[in-house]
Amino acid sequence: MSAQTLRFNTSNRSFYITVKKRVDEYFKTNNISRYANTQMVIKSIFMFALYLTPYFLLICNVFESYWIQVLLAFLMGLGMAGIGLSVMHDANHGTYSRHQKWNKLMALSMNFIGGSSLNWQIQHNVLHHTYTNIHEHDEDIAPLGFLRFEPHAEYKKIHKFQFIYAWFFYGLMTFMWATTKDFNQLARYNREGHLKTKQTTYSKELFLLILNKIFYMSFSLFIPMILMSNPWWHILIGWSIMHFTCGLFLALIFQPAHVIDLTDFPTPDSTGNMQDDWASHQMKTTANFAQKSWAFSWFVGGLNFQVEHHLFPNICHVHYKKIAPIVKQTALEFNLPYHSKKTFIGALAAHAKLLYQLGQPNSVKMAA
Questions:
Q1: 257 backbone dihedrals φ, ψ, rounded to 5°
Q2: Number of folded domains in the chain?
Q3: β-sheet bridge partners, residue 287
Q4: Fewest beta carbons within 10 Å, which of 54, 56, 86, 220?
């Protein structure tokens, strides 16, 4: 079934109408812009500094100790993740600034850390945010075959051990961005008509993607190999540590938002109709975690408030904590779930629990 034939229930949208009205009133009453504020600008500077400062210390050979260099590579990985979570994510949703030229510029930070802004917009903004947790529609729950994130996916015997080995493969996420994934995605999105929707062509985007990969590999790998006094394999190890750190951190933030034992994985009926309206669907398929941790929320770009983000992707993440009580109260009034884990560790445990459950042969029955 194509995404074009899947339809959400539109007979009762009262929850979304009510919660949107209340959130809009919050911004109006407090005379607050829904876009970035000074806090966001400071955070952006910090994340880029966390990524670039270790880089320049490395290529200038400031530290001879290899272990200090490894630490710097680790910090670069955290900086990459911070840029992705706190800068790129909002910019690609158009919420970094009320001026689209700034959003487009900051969205290119995705390309700066090895990915593709265009592919991200299609996979994340269009497919994931529209068809959250829906089998064969949401690419975020459709990993490679040795991982199983939802009960409607094909079961394989190897899945029995995925709760053990999944964490290693999470760390490879940005390796795939930097090498093969973007090329495969671009070709697929062209076949599915997404590039036409974006008013661009495959040949143009392929050319730009190749240029971006040349730039990124030159910046992140080849320039260090030329300027650093270390042997090439030291630098390759450091590059791998940076990417593994970033990939693992990103996965640990995104997976507990949807792939846990609390969330649903609804499917349409035989005619392509979903039982719920879009907003109610988001409430049933999305979860928050560690909402009381200010520092954690600050670093992860407010993405521990995934419920608020999915309902209002057009609002900058710096406002999620304030609108969360509004969303929760409205959900309770409409008898809808407001999934939340008190701690980050609790959210990871819930994710691990579901990985284990989906790895059991009888988990196939869950999809019935």
A1: -80, -20
A2: 1
A3: 339
A4: 56
For residue 56, the tally of other CB atoms under 10 A from its CB is 10
What is the spatial distance between Cα 259 and Cα 13, in angstroms, rounded to a whole number?
25
Query: Residue 131 and residue 120: Cα distance in Å, rounded?
Result: 15
Predicted TM-score (pTM) above 0.90: yes
pLDDT at 122 over 70: yes
Question: Kind and range of the H or E element at 289?
Answer: strand 287-289
- Which token pair is 5? 């034939």
DSSP H or E segment with residue 7: none
The single residue listed with the structure tokens 């090498």 is 179
What's residue 5's pLDDT? Answer: 80
For residue 21, what are the domain limits? 3-367
Dihedral angle of Cα 355, 244, 144, 182, to the nearest 10 degrees? 140
d(CA 77, CA 243): 6
Q: What is the pLDDT of residues 170-197, one digit of tens each?
A: 999 999 999 999 999 999 999 999 999 9
Q: How many CA atoms lie within 13 A of 27 on its CB side?
A: 17
User: What is the distance between the alpha carbons of residues 95 and 84, in angstroms, rounded to a whole number?
Assistant: 14
The gap from C-alpha 348 to its chain's centroid, in whole angstroms, comes to: 16
- Band the pLDDT of 1: cuts 50, 70, 90: very low
Alpha-carbon distance 305 to 211, whole Å? Answer: 35
